[in-house]
Specification:
Elements: H1 2-16, H2 31-52, H3 55-80, H4 90-97, H5 103-106, H6 108-127, H7 132-135, H8 140-162, H9 171-178, H10 180-193, H11 207-229, E1 245-251, H12 270-278, E2 281-286, H13 294-303, H14 307-310, H15 317-321, H16 330-336, E3 340-344, H17 354-361, E4 365-367, E5 377-378, E6 381-382, H18 384-396, E7 402-407, H19 435-464, E8 469-475, H20 482-488, E9 495-501, E10 509-510, E11 513-514, H21 518-527
Parallel strand pairs: 1-7, 1-8, 2-10, 2-11, 3-4, 3-7
Antiparallel strand pairs: 2-9, 5-6, 8-9
Helix pairs in contact: 1-2, 1-3, 2-3, 2-8, 3-6, 9-10, 11-21, 12-19, 18-19, 19-20
Amino acid sequence: MVLAWFGVLLLAMLAETQIKPGVGSVWSRAFPLLLAPLAIWSIAFFALLLILQRPLFTLALLAAAMLLLVLVNNVKWKSLREPFVHQDFEYFTDAILHPRLYVPFFGVWRTLIASLAGVLAVVLGLWLERSLTQQSSGYAWFGRAFLGLLISVLVLVWLSRRQTIVVTFEPEQDLQRLGFWGLLWLYTLQAFTSTATASIANPYQGRAQRSLSKACSRADGLQERRGSESQFPGPDPTDKPVLPTLVVVQSESFFDPRPVYPFINPDVLSAFDRLREQSWQTGALNVPAWGANTVRTESAFLTGLTPEHLGVHRFNPYHRFARETHIPGLVAELKAMGYRCVCIHPYPAGFYRRNEVYPKMGFDAFYDIQHFSPEQKCGQYTSDEAVADFAVKLLENTNEQMFVYIITMENHGPLHLESQPEGPLSRLYTDIPDTNASSDLSVYLNHLQNADRMLQTLQKALIQLPRPAVLGWFGDHVPIMEQVYEHYGYPSGQTEYLIWRTFSTDTPQQADLNVDELGVALLDALVCRIGE
């Protein structure tokens, strides 16, 4: 039992050396960062031993768990440029429920290795090792194991209550300074002890009312000016505040790759270019995600909260928001202005706990994958065309003042699972690149063209509505395309946004924004209707 325990601690230290992008020197760490990982793995060992009664079986299972964490961390670093953090444990369940989003990135060989390690651990434990009760008389081992567990728990509790180590929540930096097990320990500790997000000031608080007051003042001034110039003074009903229909599209993995890869055909985003020239405001968008973790960008847009506001909850804000009773933000402000707020997202409503979070934000309806059929897919997911058609029908069949928030799925990876697009590659490239290095890029550009057509469809539909309209469009993050990036260069990680209005033909304002500022810009675009 003692040898197996030491074996677990040794393996924990060795496993950390294989973590990418690498950890700092063990000896440069504070004392709690040396002792806490030993206490954590001791708790795991003694607790599992009390259940299994087999030291080698326990050692083998914990070794398999360490191997799995190392493999998952290294895959995540390669794809998302971020090490494994405490919130990622929840994704193990999601990988079972939504395997297409996770398993292909992990890889067939890694899956086989991890599965084989688990099988070998079971074989070693159940077939080759007798229980401690059979090996010795009585239950003396039980007392020693329980004592080891108790001491380990007390040590970890003591360290947790006294720890004063500063955590930045910048995973790569913290990994270097804290080590892998120290990072997981302190992030988890912060998740349980941090202040509730509900106590944070709402960045949208009162924004809608101030905007409406400003709009009414502009309308009154315009009425007075027109009345003084007229032979028959009187208010013009057209000068009253008119709040337009608002449609916002969070386009999956949307960004403009043409400046980074000049061999791409400029016509890939022709509709986007035209609309950008006609927009009220456009620019680059700083987003808190790379390759995945849509929820981070989505949360920042809907709540206006920055990663600094969220602290440890920045990695998956909805996990924390699901415990709130009310979530203030953009949706609540729009409802205060009289909007009916709906979301369209062709994926299961329970993913990221949206079905729990959205009602607390104020959404009146959520149209998820159940409102779409398998025949509407393009590639692996529901097509942007189908989503656009659904949104258009929704707007055409209502007289309500609507906010329609659309989250697309078509361009979601893994791109390498799809076959190369049909038709000549000249529609995607001006100079055909190396096929082996650009296969993911070709698939991506094919879907990007469909996103561009969706933008055009929505523009035409909004022009035909009796009510004026505002269209917002932005990308949540760049796609996962490791081979493309390694061969042709990495993008900055920024995406693009635009805000277009049916009642605006001015030269667009150029402004680079953080995604948490985008909602305020949209509110400003709504109330500028008066006096134009």
